[in-house]
Amino acid sequence: MKMSHEEYIEKNRKRAVEIASGMIDGSVHYLEGVIELSSLRFKGCLPEDDSDFIAFSVVASEVDHLPIGASRQYWSKEALEKHELEIQQSIKWAKEVSLSECKSLVARFGA
What we know:
Elements: H1 5-25, H2 30-40, H3 51-63, H4 77-109
Protein name: DUF2489 domain-containing protein
InterPro entries: DUF2489
Organism: Shewanella psychrophila
């Protein structure tokens, strides 16, 4: 069965709610969630300047050099250890600049 455009948008918005909720409760790695949310902005048919998604795009661009997510498997143990402090600091900073946007996404598209 083919999905309509509206169903596609709804599916991606529900995924954004799942990710944001997981970021809030800690079940989703915060930086991995940021990166996925940043990519979902256009799949949810939201404007480029959507105030919630701007924060995720900013954070994603600031952490794109770090070993996060699936790419970690390609990094050496030494490199992972070297970047761990920066990852932890980035998570703290990312929460400061985007946790309220996670809550806003849940409020906007959840239910």
